[in-house]
Model the fold of this input.
Amino acid sequence: MANDLIGLATLFWLVAGLIALAGRGVVLGRGLAGLGCLAGMIAAILTLPGASPPVALPVFRIADEGSGFTLSPAALWLFGFGLAPAMLAAWLGSPGRGGRFWLFGLSMSLIGALGVFGVTQGAAFLVAWEVMSLGGAAMILGERLAEGAGSRALFMLGLLEVGAVALLAAVLVLGTASGSLGFAGFAGAWRGAALYGPAIAGGLLLVGFGAKLGLLPFYEWFPGAYGAGSGATGAVLSGVVLNAAFFGLARGLLVWLPGGVDEGFGIALCAIGVISAILTTLYAFQQEDWRALLAFSSAENASVAVTALGASLLFEAGHLPLFAGLAFTVALLHLAAHALAKGALFLAADGVFAATGGYAIRQDGVLRANTPLFGMGALFAAMSLAAMPPQAGFVSEWFMFQTVFQGFHLPGLAERLTLVLTGAGLALTAAIAFATFVKLFGVGLQGRAADGGARLPARHQSAVGALGLAVLALAVGMPVWLGALARVWPAHDAIDAAAHMTDGWILVPLSAGFAFISPSKLVIVMPLLALVPAAAILLCRRRPARRVPVWYGGSPRLDRRNATTALTFSNSLRTFYSFVYRPRAETGVETSLSPYFVKHLRFEHDVAPIFGPALFGPVVRLVHGLARRGRVLQSGSLNLYLGIIGLLLVAILVVALF
Done:
């Protein structure tokens, strides 16, 4: 049944892609793409906590080897939750002009992601990975929503190709050691091998998948690429595509290299994850565009999941498989909550674009002008990403902290100290993320508009509300949903950490004596707490309310021009962390007659990237220089072309003879 539904989903996506190429029936194609996502979600629901039955794919023979296909429980979990926002994004469509190209890119991304999750052969996996990456670029380029979209997509593809080359090298290293490109042989190849071999392969896997996950320094393509596309594109990239990249990294480190990476690699993974999370959430807080802010936040949440993966490696190296399973399960919970919440806010961004014509974070009275369903959905999604109770993001963050607090079980001082510092870094990340989504919800959706508020399309309001309620349902039903993650730890099939994470309707980190929460009960208790302020309001009704203007720096009047902006909200942190941001502000004044008569005032501000000028800039300049010097090869001279061909023939003969 599961394979039938997955095959049906693949067929729908293929037909949608063909419709996009034909250029007619784009609406029908979007509907089919959404139905494919729905079929994939149903397959995941019906199959979990088990895996899909393995099937052979003899048609896809690459490198003289056929590939199999199977979806593990972890793959089904991540794939299913990633498809939920993708389904709604497909049905809503892109607000850009190139709908057919966007649909083609969507189909490529979904088919490629399915291959990344399910194929069992190295060459087929690399093909699926490239298809997924090219699909994302096709979506961005097809929308034509921003100037310079081509250069942004090219920068994204350039960094992703660095990762693809690293993955190619990793697969070659693993295939050479095992004598086959089949994943089944990768694990056994490292038993008894020297440590440097698995370390090299693990490093290549980290670079390859880290380029897609947004680990440092690769996160710098996120705001440009996401900012050139729509919210629908962002919902796909931050959902199913991001989940596929994390699954690839986890499978590589836990299944392909079992026991090959030691505690040193786990320490490095925790350090990279925490530093990436801190930097990306710092930059997210400074953004004034919905898509750029949510893009940095996606990289931050991926970094948190990678940190949980690093903790699982530390526990595995310390011979604590149950704690390792806990850490890995927490990563899956975190990415599930992130996919739903981030999808809701990306689709809300598209609604804001449809209503206002832009993605700027400003007070346009969106919340008061739209339905309570939209308000609840956006609020629940923002609360989840801000790790506020009782939302799913709070549950996963709480589990994350409880996991690193278990570090005292580890045998080595370095490992214990690593998890202590990891907890401190995650606390800083959570605090800044909280402020970030208070800013996004408060400045981006609240306020009073001059014309009564921006009215969003009804379909966007419904989609945001549905995903927001799904976030709450994930949190409330967590004791039930955890049953779908039984024996999900890929390194030990017999380890069922999820069974030790619940005690009735209470969530516990393996032991109720250590800590516990219950989002299911919080949903009941928290509304009851609202009776306290409600009673206070009723008791104070006898006293008339006195309304006075808010003091604003001595200004005699207060209007929309005095409203809090994205810059004023985040400027204090920009000043405090100026050593990271290195902010830049430029002011230009155009006057008439005298300096006292200002005709035009221009103010520009920005923060400087960390890795772009120092790391990527020299590489770009080198490529441009080589391209200028290589122009001679395209001079149009027939004699030059014939001479080059002659030299190539001589070189071929020399190689063949000697």
